[in-house]
Amino acid sequence: MSDDRGLGRGGAAAGTIRRSNPDWYKVTLMATDHLLSRITSSPEIFGGKPIIRGMRISVELVLSLLAQGESIEAVLEDYPDLEPDDIRACLEYARAVIAHDRIDGVRVSTP
């Protein structure tokens, strides 16, 4: 699952970005922030759990479906309001939380 910018899974494309672009870290942070901006949190929806773009679809649900072996295509088919970047955002959110990385891109709304 790679995109045009070579920011997909890592592998050779990511190595190329790093070698060819001295600002690769900034490019990666921008991509991360873009994805994390899709993750929101609102106290009125699921008690403030992380959700996708304000919808009643939680990051937890998407990660659970993927962990159970559902394909990305199946998740997108079952939840037509989701986009491929929403799935990537869920995975990036999980990675950031596990790595104790920054999640500044997550938008939290207040009542």
Account of the 3D structure:
By secondary structure, the chain is mainly alpha-helical. It has a single domain (11-108), classed as Winged helix-like DNA-binding domain superfamily/Winged helix DNA-binding domain (Arc Repressor Mutant, subunit A, Orthogonal Bundle), CATH 1.10.10. The protein contains five helices and three strands, in the order ααββαααβ. The chain has a three-stranded mixed beta sheet. It starts with 10 loop residues before the first helix and ends with a strand. Residues 1-17 have low confidence and may be disordered.
Quick summary:
The protein is mainly alpha-helical and 111 residues long. It has 5 helices and 3 strands.
